[in-house]
Amino acid sequence: MYKTLSFIVPKRIFNRMSSVDVAALRIKYLEKKEVFREDSIEKKDPIFLFKKWLDEAIANEELLEPNAMCLATVSKTGLPSARFVLLKSVEERGFTFFTNYGSRKAKDMSENPNVAATFYWLPLRRQIRIEGTVEKISREESEKYFHSRPRASQIGAVASPQSEVIPSREYLDDIESGIKEQFAENKEVPMPNWGGYLITPKIIEFWQGQTNRLHDRIQFRKSDEDVDGKLVHRAENGWVMERLAP
């Protein structure tokens, strides 16, 4: 049986933790002079803007993994699930990440290709939301990336039956040891049932926090609709742009 939290944590610490008013927690966002305006977007293309914001996130020393994104999938029965994965490339066609093809997320994506992904960069008071569809990239692309990873990561991918129930941590360690023995330093580690996925975006939203809670939200949508130039604006490369209320 697992020990309860009150047993593990000293009573005086637990009481202090439980007395925190979570609803009152606040952080300072940006001031009105730093609002995110449409005329500040030098190129009205969300992939271009995403790369610009990502570069700024990478340059920020407070952000340890700026390419971490929360990936949300939905099963064929409508059950949602979310977890963090690492973005590995972004280009005009979309966003690429890698995972085990036997994982829960892979099963979800095989049954329902609609996904969402979110980046949250607190030091910059920014987040980016992406909605779209997902598909596997080619085996050749996956192989190329797999063998560019550190050898320990390659072995770990082979060792782990991702999302399956296993008996213990030692079970994984034993499998890893066996793989290390099987594939000496001069042997190539074969890629397991593993590879990349491409998210083709349909919606990309850029959010920037404001201290007065009138946050900036500028959304790009793939659309060939006629635009009025007031609420909906024509952007580049098949996108339209609009501002959303916070």
Describe what you observe in this structure.
This protein has 246 residues and is α+β, with helices and mostly antiparallel strands. 26% of the residues lie in helices and 30% in strands. It has helices spanning 5-8, 11-18, 46-59, 104-111, 139-146, 151-159, 169-182; strands at residues 68-74, 80-86, 89-91, 94-100, 114-121, 126-136, 194-208, 216-222, 232-234, 239-243. Strands 1, 2, 3, 4, 5, 6, 7, 8, 9 and 10 form a 10-stranded antiparallel β-sheet that branches. Strand 5 (114-121) and strand 6 form a beta hairpin. The longest helix has 14 residues, at 46-59. It starts with a helix and ends with a strand.
Topology, please?
Elements: H1 5-8, H2 11-18, H3 46-59, E1 68-74, E2 80-86, E3 89-91, E4 94-100, H4 104-111, E5 114-121, E6 126-136, H5 139-146, H6 151-159, H7 169-182, E7 194-208, E8 216-222, E9 232-234, E10 239-243
Antiparallel strand pairs: 1-2, 1-5, 3-4, 4-7, 5-6, 6-7, 7-8, 8-10, 9-10
Helix pairs in contact: 6-7
Question: What's a concise summary of this model?
Answer:
The chain has seven helices and ten strands.
Properties at a glance:
disordered N terminus; 7 helices; ten-stranded antiparallel beta sheet; alpha+beta; 246 residues
